[in-house]
Every structure is written in structure tokens, then in C-alpha cells.
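Risk mitigation, structural track. In case the binding assays with NDP fail to produce interpretable data, a predicted complex structure has been prepared as a fallback.
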Amino acid sequence: MFNALIVNKNDEGKTSAEITRIGLDDLPAGEVTVAVEYSTVNYKDGLCLGPGGGLVRNYPHVPGIDFAGTVEASDDPRYKAGDKVVLTGWRVGEAHWGGYAQKARVKADWLVPLPAGLDTRRAMAVGTAGLTAMLAVMALEDHGIKGGPVLVTGAAGGVGSVATAILAGLGHEVAAVTGRPETADYLTSLGATQIVAREDLNETTKRPLEAETWAGCVDAVGGEMLARVLGQMKYGASVSAVGLAGGAGLPATVIPFLLRGVNLLGIDSVMQPYDNRLRAWGRIAKDLPMDKLEAMVQPATLSDLPALGRDILKGQIKGRVVVDVNA
Ligand code: NDP
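Fallback model:
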């Protein structure tokens, strides 16, 4: 028997989460059983832990969209007991039981072997948010990062923190947008060279184009901020659009695309094929300064999760929450 955070929904549609003792027979079908060591709190986890159940597709449910641990048993020749693995995406924690338990059973195709240089705790300090940040940076690189500062929005959050550290580690000048001035020292410690106040980019303008300022952008916020940023990109520069923490609407014009050749690149970490995930995890192990990763970590346990889910939806988490499911 082992611990799992089980979310249930009652007849009135109200959800509740409780740490429960369950057995291996309770786990969903899959080729690989993993002894989970760490999971995290991502924005989607906040939604799944919230009152309506967010993206959860079946009840009872174990949320947790990512985890890292050690293979305990495998019916797939690619994995054997003792292998260290990491999982992100594939609707785990939404349609299939996820990482908020001491054991998980999943399809072998969803796993990636842990690259050298990362242990399970560091892999979850990166987690889905960090993998997404790496995919966003790789997309900018594929389209060419122009000379000058690269903007990161939602910088003190999970995706933003990792994107800031990766870009700075690669030698780029990083301008970090935050609505929390008290995180300026933290963002500078991750390598940001410029702090931009959220309200400076939230103010709407009637001008579709402004001074060419940013050589690239990793955007975790969307909404009005993304619309404003599009008009400030350098000629031919790219924006990796990752998230919608500031809203799903996009009140923009086509002018930045027509007159400045701006590229808007959509980033999806969920259905990434194995080879892409492997390449991105390899780049994380190589290019993400590990001392900076440590500075982002907030440790947590399974019992902290309901409160942390509420915090992330309010944009109040700094960096990355790492959940030790065995604590
Ligand atoms: P976090 O909550 O950790 O970070 C989001 C940050 O956005 C906040 O910390 C805050 O940063 C800023 N923010 C929050 N609300 C607002 C607002 N109303 N206006 C402007 N800025 C705001 O979340 P994550 O970093 O984990 O995720 C960020 C987004 O990326 C989410 O929408 C998430 O769903 C998405 N995502 C997408 C993935 C993909 O595959 N495409 C994968 C992972 C995440 P600050 O305080 O610095 O201003």
C-alpha cells in the first residue's frame, strides 16, 4: 500500500482531495510501474486541484501532470527495474492518473530516461514548466534570435524563471517582465539584466507598432501583454507563445506580422514526440545552470498541494515547487 492524493467529485459537482492509502491494483493500466520520487505544481495542476476539477477527465483521480522516479517493473524492453525516468505531458494528471502518488503506472512511450547530469529532484525542479521553457528557447533558436535583449513575460513564475536562467546561461541579454517588484533580486540572480514592470506592458496602446526593442520573446502570459509585445519586436524576430496566465484573448492587429515579419510560434509540451523530448531534456542538462535551478526551488509535500494549487492560479508561486511524494 502507498500514499496517493485522490481527488473525488460528489453529486453536486464539488471536488475534494484527500491523501489515501491505495494498492498497485488500483493503478491504471500501463507497461511501466514507477516508484515516484518527485512531482511538481504547474498551472494545469492548479486547475485540476481547483473547485471544478479543471482538466480532470475521470474520478476518482490522481492529479500531477509530471513526475520523476525509478522504474519498479516494466513490460517494455526499453525500461528495466532501477532505471531513472521522467514524465511530462500526454494528459497524465488529467485523463490518466499522475504524479501525486508514491507509485504510477504509465505507457512506456510517455517516459524519457533521465539524462546524465540530472537527478530525479532536479528533473522535477525543471518539470513541465522548465521543459516548455527549453522548447520555447529552441524554437527561438530555430528561427534565429536577433541581437539585443530577449523578453521573458511572467518571469517570476515557473516557465519564466527557467526561461530566464536558460537564456542568460546561453549568453543572451534577458529582460524579465514581472508584476511583483519584490522578485527583482531573484530574477537578477537568475541572470536577468533588465526588469520590466508588468504595468508598462499591460497598458494598451492604439499604436500597432512601437520602437523595435526585443530580439526574441518567451511569453507565458498571452492576452493584452502579448498583443503589446508583438508591436515591440525587432524586424524578423520571434515570440514563443507558451501560456495564457494573463488571458486567452489576443487583441492584436496583423501589422507586426506584415510590416515587421514577426513570427508567432506556438509551443506545446504535451504531445511532444519522444525524440524532441529527449533532445530538450539533453539541452536542459547541458545548458541550464544548476546553481540557478536550486535558487528557484520551493520544497513541498503531498499535504501542501491543495493550498499550492490555489496559489499558482493566483500567480503567487515564485519559481518551481518540487513535491517530495515520500516526505
Ligand atoms: P506560474 O503561475 O508559475 O507563472 C505565471 C506567471 O505569469 C506568474 O508568476 C506571473 O508572473 C504572471 N502572471 C500571472 N497572472 C498574470 C496576469 N493576470 N497578467 C500578467 N502576468 C500574469 O505558471 P507557469 O509558469 O507554470 O505557467 C505559465 C503559463 O504557461 C500557464 O498559462 C500555463 O498553463 C502555461 N504552460 C503551457 C505549457 C505548454 O506546453 N504550452 C506547459 C506549461 C505551462 P510575475 O509575477 O512575474 O508577473
